[in-house]
Write a structure and sequence with these properties.
The structure holds 2 protein chains of 2 kinds.
Chain A: E1 4-7, E2 14-17, H1 27-40, E3 42-45, H2 52-60, E4 65-66, E5 82-86, E6 113-120, E7 128-132, H3 133-138, H4 142-149, E8 152-155, H5 161-168, H6 172-181, E9 185-188, E10 190-192, E11 199-201, E12 208-211, H7 216-230, E13 236-239, E14 246-250, E15 254-258, E16 266-273
Parallel strand pairs in A: 2-3
Antiparallel strand pairs in A: 1-2, 3-14, 4-16, 5-16, 6-14, 6-16, 7-13, 7-15, 8-9, 8-12, 10-11
Chain B: E1 8-9, E2 16-17, H1 28-41, E3 43-46, H2 53-61, H3 70-74, E4 83-87, E5 111-118, E6 126-130, H4 131-137, H5 140-147, E7 150-153, H6 158-167, H7 172-179, E8 183-186, E9 188-190, E10 197-199, E11 207-210, H8 215-229, E12 235-238, E13 245-249, E14 253-257, E15 266-273
Helix pairs in contact in B: 6-7
The chains are: A alpha+beta, B alpha+beta.
C-alpha cells in the first residue's frame, strides 16, 4: 500500500491518504502508520469508510485497543468501540471536552493513543484542536525547562468534578464512586516519549490537581503559565470533521480540545489504545 | 432583489467559504449578495481567485473607499495602497496576536481583503474570532457593564516606534502620533450594516486602558475580555492555498497570523476599506 502523508502545520498533524482497510493491515503498512503518528502527533484520514470493526482494526495498527470503562458499546464484535456523544440541546458547552486535555490521565497508565471517528456531525462546528506538547516543551526557555524537568504532578478524577457535575446534572453519587475508584496518581510534569525519546509536557487542566512540593499558589500559577504556553496557536492544528473522518492521536505527546460551538447532535466512536506508565 | 450567494459555513460562530463567485467580474447584484454574506458571516473565503494587485484593489473598491495607508496619508498621499508583507528568516512574522486593524484611527477600516502570494508548504494559517458571538456569550450583567465603556486606542508607542525603525527617519514616531491622536472607542459597537452588537477590541499594545478606570481595573477587564474572545468556539482557522482571497468585517472580528511557519517564507498582500466612527 502506498500511503501519502501531508503535514498540516509545522508542529502537529498530518493527513494520510491511500490507506484501505478490508481486513488485517499488513505489518509494513502498520509500521508506517505508527511512524507517521509518532512523527506528527496526530494523523487524519478522510477517505476511509469504516464500521466499528474496521475502526478497531485501524486502531490496532497503533497498539492494543482496550476496553474503556465507561460509555455505550454499540457493536458486540468490537467492544473496544464506545460512543462519545452529544444528543443535541441548548449547547454542547461544558461537556468536559472543551478544555485542553490529554485523555484519562487520572489512570496510572493513561492510553497511548486514541482513535476517533465521526459518525454523526452537526451541520457546522465541532472541530477538534490538537496541540503538540513536545513542541511546547521545546518552546520553553532553558531555565523554565530546567525547572519543570524535575517536577511531578498529581492527577485525579476529583479535578474533573466540576465538569462531571455539569455533564451529569449534579450526579454526586456517581461522582463519589468514580473518585473513590480512581485515587490520585503521580505523573512527571515532563514525560519522555517511549518511542521518539522526545520530552513532552504532560499536565492538563481536566485532571491535574497540582504539582508536588510546591505551595498551592506556586502550583496554580505554574500550571497556569504552562497551560497558557501550551495553548498558543503555533503549537496547534484544527481539524474540521467530515462524515466518516478518523483522527488518531498520540495521547503521550498531543493534547486536544473539542470545540463546543454547536447545538445539534454529534456522535463519535472512540477506541483507546493501551499505554504505559509515564516516565 | 439581490443574488443569493452559495455559502459553506466554516465555524459555529463565523466564517464561510464562497465557492461560486468570480471576484474579478461580479455584477452589482453579486456584490450586494457578497456584502450581505460578509457582514453576517464575519469572514468569507474565496478559493481560486488569483487576483492581480490591481484586481485586488478594484475588488476592495466595490465595497467602499479603499484606505490610504496612514503614514503615506500623513505625507499627503491620496492613493489607496496595498501592503505586501514578507515573512522570512530575516523578517519574522509579527501579527500573531488577536487584533483588528489600525483601530487607533478615528474611522478604522470596516473591511479587509487579504491574499497569500507565497504560501509555505505548511503553517502560516490565519485565524479569525467573532467578537459578535463573544459579546452574545457574555452574561447580561457583563454586557451591561461593558456596554457603557470606552477604551483608549493608541498608535503610540508600538506602531510609531516600529514605523520609525523601519523607515530610519528620526522623529517619525512623534510625527505619526501627532497626526493620529489617541482614540476613545466604545468597547461595544453596533455594526451599522446588521444592527448587531459586538465587542470592539484589539491587542493590548494598542488598546491600553478604559476611560475613567485605573490601570489595574483596565488591565483586569480588558485582559478578561480578550481571554473570553480567545476560545475555539468563537474562532476559525484558515489554511491558505494559492489564489485564495479572504474578506472580513473588521468591526465584528479579531484576527491573528499564526507564526509557526517561521523561518519559512510567506508573502501576503492586503488592503482595507474605510469604515465609520465606531458607535
Amino acid at each position: 500500500m502506498t500511503l501519502t502523508v501531508s503535514r498540516v502545520t509545522p508542529h502537529v498533524g498530518a493527513e494520510i491518504s491511500g490507506l484501505s482497510i478490508d481486513g488485517p493491515v499488513d505489518a509494513a503498512t502498520a509500521a508506517e502508520l505508527r511512524r507517521a503518528l509518532v512523527d506528527h502527533g496526530v494523523v487524519f484520514f478522510r477517505d476511509l469508510e469504516l464500521d466499528d470493526v474496521g475502526q478497531r482494526e485501524l486502531a490496532s495498527c497503533f497498539g492494543r485497543p482496550e476496553l474503556f470503562q465507561y460509555g455505550e458499546r454499540p457493536t458486540p464484535e468490537a467492544p473496544e468501540v464506545h460512543v462519545i456523544g452529544f444528543d443535541g440541546g441548548d449547547a454542547a458547552r461544558g461537556r468536559g471536552a472543551d478544555t485542553w486535555h490529554f485523555d484519562v490521565t487520572y489512570l496510572p497508565e493513561p492510553p497511548a493513543g486514541t482513535c476517533l471517528r465521526a459518525v454523526a456531525l452537526p451541520e457546522v462546528g465541532g472541530d477538534t484542536l490538537f496541540a503538540h506538547a513536545g513542541a511546547a516543551y521545546d518552546g520553553l526557555s532553558v531555565p523554565l525547562r530546567r525547572l519543570v524537568d524535575g517536577l511531578t504532578a498529581v492527577h485525579e478524577y476529583l479535578a474533573f468534578a466540576p465538569a462531571f457535575l455539569a455533564i451529569s446534572g449534579g450526579d454526586r453519587a456517581t461522582l463519589a464512586a468514580r473518585v473513590a475508584e480512581h485515587p490520585p496518581v503521580r505523573h512527571p510534569v515532563v514525560r519522555t516519549h517511549p518511542e521518539s525519546g522526545r520530552r513532552c509536557l504532560f499536565v492538563n487542566p481536566n485532571y491535574t490537581s497540582g504539582i508536588e512540593g510546591l505551595s498551592v499558589l506556586e502550583s496554580a500559577k505554574l500550571l497556569e503559565l504552562l497551560y497558557a504556553h501550551m495553548q498558543q496557536p503555533d503549537y496547534q492544528c484544527r481539524f474540521s470533521w467530515s462524515p466518516g473522518a478518523v483522527a488518531v492521536w498520540d495521547n503521550r505527546a498531543v493534547m486536544h480540545y473539542a470545540t463546543a460551538d454547536y447545538s445539534q447532535p454529534r456522535r463519535m466512536h472512540r477506541v483507546v489504545i493501551t499505554g504505559d506508565r509515564p516516565r | 432583489m439581490t443574488t443569493t450567494i452559495e455559502l459553506h459555513r466554516v465555524g459555529g460562530a463565523l466564517g464561510a467559504v464562497v465557492p461560486g463567485v468570480k471576484l474579478a467580474s461580479m455584477s452589482d447584484d453579486t456584490v450586494a449578495g457578497v456584502h450581505r454574506a460578509l457582514v453576517t458571516n464575519g469572514v468569507l473565503f474565496f478559493p481560486d481567485q488569483h487576483l492581480s494587485a490591481d484586481e485586488q484593489l478594484a475588488l476592495a473598491h466595490r465595497f467602499g473607499e479603499c484606505s490610504v495607508y496612514p503614514v503615506e496619508k500623513m505625507f499627503g498621499s491620496v492613493e489607496p495602497g496595498q501592503q505586501v508583507i514578507v515573512d522570512d528568516a530575516d523578517s519574522p512574522p509579527g501579527t500573531d496576536m488577536w487584533h483588528t486593524d489600525v483601530s487607533w484611527l478615528e474611522r478604522p477600516p470596516k473591511f479587509a481583503v487579504l491574499t497569500v502570494l507565497e504560501v509555505p508548504p505548511y503553517g502560516g494559517d490565519t485565524m479569525w474570532c467573532s467578537t459578535q458571538a463573544a459579546y452574545e456569550a457574555l452574561s447580561p450583567v457583563m454586557q451591561e457593564v461593558v456596554g457603557g465603556l470606552r477604551a483608549k486606542h493608541s498608535c503610540w508607542p508600538g506602531f510609531c516606534e516600529i514605523a520609525e525603525q523601519k523607515s530610519g527617519f528620526a522623529g517619525l514616531a512623534e510625527r505619526i502620533h501627532a497626526a493620529y491622536p489617541d482614540q476613545h472607542h466604545p468597547i461595544v459597537r453596533t455594526n451599522p450594516d446588521t444592527g448587531a452588537r459586538a465587542l470592539y477590541l484589539t491587542d493590548r499594545t494598542v488598546m491600553q486602558s478604559i476611560d475613567g478606570m485605573t490601570q489595574a481595573e483596565s488591565d483586569a477587564l480588558l485582559d478578561f475580555l480578550l481571554a473570553h474572545c480567545d476560545q475555539p468556539r468563537f474562532s476559525v482557522r484558515w489554511r491558505w492555498s494559492e489564489g485564495d482571497i479572504a474578506i472580513w468585517d473588521e468591526r465584528t472580528t479579531l484576527h491573528r497570523g499564526v507564526s509557526d511557519h517561521h523561518p519559512q517564507r510567506r508573502v501576503v498582500r492586503r488592503c482595507t476599506v474605510d469604515g465609520e466612527v465606531p458607535a
